[in-house]
Amino acid sequence: MTTEQTPENETRQMFVETAARLFAAEATREVINELEKGTWPAGLWRQVEDAGLPWAAVPESAGGAGGTIGDLMAVLREAGRHAVPLPLAETGLGAMLVAQAGLTPPAGPLALVIAGAGSPVRIAGGKLAGRAQRVAFASVADSIVVVAPGAAGTEVAVVPRAAVKIEAQQGQTGEPYDTVTFDGAAAAASAATSVTPERALELAALARVNQMSGAADRVLALATQYAKERVQFGRAISTFQAIQHMLAELATYVAVVGAAARTAARDAEEGDGAFAIMAAKTQAGEAAHKICAIAHQSMGAMGFTYEHVLHHYTRRLWVWRRDYGSETYWGAKLGRALAEAGADAFWPSLTASSIAA
Amino acid sequence: MTAPALEFPPFRLPPDTEALRTEIRAFLKQTLPTITGGDRFKSWNSRSPEFSKKLGAKGWIGITWPRQYGGGEKSFLHRYVVTEELLANNAPAGSHWVADRQSGPGILRFGSEEMKRSILPRIVKGECYFAIGMSEPDSGSDLASVRTRADKVDGGWLVNGTKIWTSGAHRSHYAITLLRTSGTREDKHRGLSQLVIDLSLPGITIRPIINLNGKHDWNEVVFRDCLVPDSMMLGNEGDGWMQVTSELAHERSGPERFLTNVHVLKELVKLVGRQPGRHAQEVVGKLAARLWSLRQMSLSVAGMLENGKSPVTEGAVTKDLGTHFQQDLPEVARVLAESDAADADDIADFLDMCQMATLAAPAYSIQGGTTQILRGIIARGLGLR
């Protein structure tokens, strides 16, 4: 399986090629499996850091690679394609949000906490209160970036991991999905930000959609390859029309996730992309079910073993569709906005990718 | 390892096409009658020569064709926007649809100068309509097996045979007809040609085939010693197969593959009101997300075509997803409406509309390449066959 063939520009292509090369060589099955047993892949992280990938969307003036959010999303699609067991999305977005608030992004891996209904976190006088659940990679991050309401509007804070209480939990990807209790923890730095928790959640959803797109591509590649190699009744099962049609259907769902993810990434780069992100996370969440179901069915018992790598991708699709708002959450939000605008605004909203007045 | 996955790079329509969109919306708002009550559910997808002529007067038929034949010399992206707006606003664009989408471009590409001059300007004005004579009683998806023959005689071709499922033949002036001009069925795609047949010629019988919703759209067209002049041969004799297969890429992924019944979704938004409950929000949002995603795929394919690529697999993927969206839509809408309504009698009109849309739905994944044909194309794209 190769990487994306049609990057939007040369900078993007450079990011994609660097990421793809590094991930293919270093994010091996062994590294992924070891993380599930609790071994943080320090070597892999160092290489990713050296390549500047986590800071793709951080300006050069703040120590980043000076790319766009679209570049970061392209890197995340590659990360998804290789099931890279690192907080690349969290660090990429966390550092970007910190830099946007005028702070210097901290070194090292980051976790991301966005205040919301399930995570009622607040910032006051440089101290944090509250508790957040399912915080990806919190227990292995150096710092936690928090976007939460402050005394006068939203603030972004950088909190050293050592300052918070962490209940380590493993998500169904095998990666840490921890509970973080702040309990008055002091921020190393904090500042007001124009990025509301609602907006931060959109960006995080965008990141997951792009990771899902990469993982979905890989699932299709794995299932296709398997069908060509697996021989039953004296022939490769890829020659059976039943299998061909299953995989063709699988390809349609993988393709729609890819189209939605890339369009949302573009829209977020050129504007806020809120409409596209809502639609894309909804579509990806819905498609994930079918993608995983067909891929597993086509690969039989082999694909159900731990030994085969398929599950690294399907488990991530099942978990990522839940992260940062499921298809139900974003679907309802999109539907609410469309209903409020009224039936006559429906089609104009669809064509403008934003709610028409 | 294996072949690259399918890619749909994002594509944005250029600003001048969006300006055209604004113009078309204003025109449609002014031109289309305001229909209220239950009748508004019955007006879609219909034929109206009067409307076609008005659209032609605006220059929106044959919009991509050369000026010398009355065309607008605009891009396919302009055409894309026209098509989207006609569908999304339920315009009765059925009369000129096939001529504009398929027959005109075919004549432009393969037809003689005489044919172009005599036919294209009439299509552009919205006055000349076409049907497509491909399927036969024994040739559906396996199109190369057609039996209808044209035998060379003095001054033309003598046509004998039967075409079936010929949409709108009873209201069209011509049918571009795929037939065998040499060899036998065993020669498959060799020896096939296309004739542009004037449907008023002697020797043609058009019989209605009523479809399951009681409508007359399809026909059986029987040719018995019908003499078609030499000048009506489309392109070279024997090129028929190349001609019919080359036109499918543009056709597969256009807006008609996901917008045909979008009025159901618009009516659903109206029905749930400005402040729907959580479940209705979710259902509407999920349908909208699917539609938005499909549109982005279709735009991406349009962009690839515009850039000279031939996205055969991508077009098939888009059509497959699009037709299934259109089949799900009336069902999902019906279920939501019923579960939201206190009494089904309160929403009888809406349910009637869903019913009509449901009756139309089976055709979506049959016409223009069945699901199974499309999945075969996709499987080939994946390197499985």
Automatic annotation (TrEMBL), chain A:
> Does Cell division appear among the keywords?
no
User: Which positions fall inside the Acyl-CoA dehydrogenase/oxidase N-terminal domain?
Assistant: 10-102
Q: What range(s) does the Acyl-CoA dehydrogenase/oxidase C-terminal domain occupy? A: 201-316
Listed InterPro entries: AcylCo_DH-like_C, AcylCo_DH/oxidase_C, AcylCoA_DH/ox_N, AcylCoA_DH/ox_N_sf, AcylCoA_DH/oxidase_NM_dom_sf
Family annotation (Pfam families) = Acyl-CoA_dh_1, Acyl-CoA_dh_N
Record's keyword annotation contains Flavoprotein:
yes
Cofactor(s) needed: FAD
- What's a single GO MF annotation on this record? flavin adenine dinucleotide binding
Alphabetical keyword list: FAD, Flavoprotein, Oxidoreductase
Q: Name the protein family.
A: Belongs to the acyl-CoA dehydrogenase family.
- Protein's recorded name: Acyl-CoA dehydrogenase
Organism of origin: Vineibacter terrae
Automatic annotation (TrEMBL), chain B:
Q: Single GO molecular-function term?
A: acyl-CoA dehydrogenase activity
Record-annotated Acyl-CoA dehydrogenase/oxidase C-terminal domain positions: 279-382
Q: List required co-factors.
A: FAD
* Residues annotated as domain Acyl-CoA dehydrogenase/oxidase N-terminal: 15-127
Q: Indicate whether Flavoprotein appears among the record's keywords.
A: yes
Gene3D superfamilies named among the record's database cross-references: Acyl-CoA dehydrogenase/oxidase, N-terminal domain, Butyryl-CoA Dehydrogenase, subunit A, domain 2, Butyryl-CoA Dehydrogenase, subunit A, domain 3
InterPro entries of this UniProt entry?
Acyl-CoA_DH_CS, Acyl-CoA_Oxase/DH_mid-dom, Acyl-CoA_Oxase/DH_mid-dom_sf, AcylCo_DH/oxidase_C, AcylCoA_DH/ox_N, AcylCoA_DH/ox_N_sf, AcylCoA_DH/oxidase_NM_dom_sf, Mycobact_Acyl-CoA_DH
Q: Which domain of life is it from?
A: Bacteria
**Domain (Acyl-CoA oxidase/dehydrogenase middle) ranges:** 131-226
Keywords for this protein: FAD, Flavoprotein, Oxidoreductase
Question: Cellular component per GO?
Answer: plasma membrane
Q: What SUPFAM superfamilies does the record tag this protein with?
A: Acyl-CoA dehydrogenase NM domain-like (SSF56645)
The similarity comment for this entry is:
Belongs to the acyl-CoA dehydrogenase family.
Protein name per its UniProtKB record: Acyl-CoA dehydrogenase
Q: Provide the species name.
A: Vineibacter terrae
